[in-house]
Amino acid sequence: MKLIYLIFLTSISLSVLGQYSPIINFPVSTFEYTGDPLVDSSGNEVRFELKVYFSIPENPRGVIYFFHGGGGSGLTWLLSVEQPYLLREAIDRGYGIIAMDSNNRNGNRWEVGTDAKGNVVAQNDSYDSEHVWMVHQNMLNRGKYDEDTPLFAVGFSNGGAFTSSLGLRASSYFIENEMNLPDVNHIVPFSAVAIYGAIGSYAKPAVYDVPTIFNVGINDNKVPPYPNMTWHPDWPYTPENTVIFTHQKLIDSGVQTEFNVKPEETVNSFMFAIIPGIDSSGSSVIYDSLKAIVHPITGMPFISADDSLLFHPRINNFWKRFVPQMYQNKLPKIEQQLNVKYAGHVVFREFRDESLDFFDGQLMPTSINDNVGASESILNAKCYPNPFIDDVNISYNIAESSYLDILIYDNVGRLVHIQKNRFHNAGSYNLSWPPKHRSSSVLNGIYHAIIRAENDVVNLKFIKL
After folding, report:
1. Which pLDDT value is given to residue 236?
2. 3.30.70.580, 3.40.50.300, 3.40.50.1820, 3.40.1390.20: which CATH number matches 3-263+348-358?
3. pTM
4. Which of 21, 124, 237, 299 lies most in the core, judged by the most C-beta atoms within 10 Å?
């Protein structure tokens, strides 16, 4: 594949970004590239003129690639309302961020090949994947990060489907057999992926072993053709095309995975004030206008007496004409915030910590094993009894004063205990888990504890009988 780079290095003015989102207050650079025209599997000519936006500190602890959904662009991640919270938190944790455009992803042009036994053997349509590799090489060549820097991927909607595809390519089978796969040109070695507002059909027939976290809204599956969470008999899809099916398949395969669901929330008079250009009084005006709306045919209110949304704000857009004229130019962002409350097909800032904690877990210098800490670490830990019936005692010793995190996950990847950023003097400590009042509610099974102090991490595995 011959591609011609046209690179223009620029710096995006903070004042320009600031007028769209108060969350973005770090420098963002961009470059562009254009490729020769290509012909896709449908015979259509595709020319790529793409932009890449990035902010990478010196010696990043990891770099996260962000992929937009169909019809979007890399700039969406910077100029939307909810997405920048995730970028801001990533920057604060020491990660670098990269967001890139994709003509190809907007056209849904990616395919996965299988052999006679159903094993994945090729990624036939690799235009977009090749662009990710090109950006990766560009960053390496310019010294923005090095070959040892952990890489992660975050994708929303169609970008989530593409992110899953990148995870497949980063699986051990592809990495080990890259040279023997005729349709796989290059592989970017992502350590883990996060999928937001997922579209179904992630269940790979074989070899997918990249840690994956799914973040969806409870009403995401009410938007055909996005059967994300569960299956419905009225949809022309099988249950195997749901994300929950894939999540369970990853669990059964022993792949680290997490599945988060955001519930519906009630609307309120100050919810729109987060949108740049709308203050608290403007938010109250918009809320009052929406509260007074009734559906022109059914006569049902748009917002119930208890402030619940009774209609999907993206599908039923009759409400838009009732927004005061002075805020009509804010409709896309107002709709996004309504979808946040409805828990529809958008990115939710509530999942920023879950995704980044999940990525943090992949930076651990040790693998999960029983009662073993890193011998050179300032931190050591063990747990007993193991297996346990009522509670387990986690005993840990820290050689230097430090802030400490203790996270406990069940075997499905749910966070069941959190103790974050607590200062500890050097010495020995004990934690009894679960607390006595919770023993009856803790299910039998396997649990994993992550204990972090500065850059040192210890992983413990224990079993409740």
Report:
1. 58
2. 3.40.50.1820
3. 0.73
4. 21
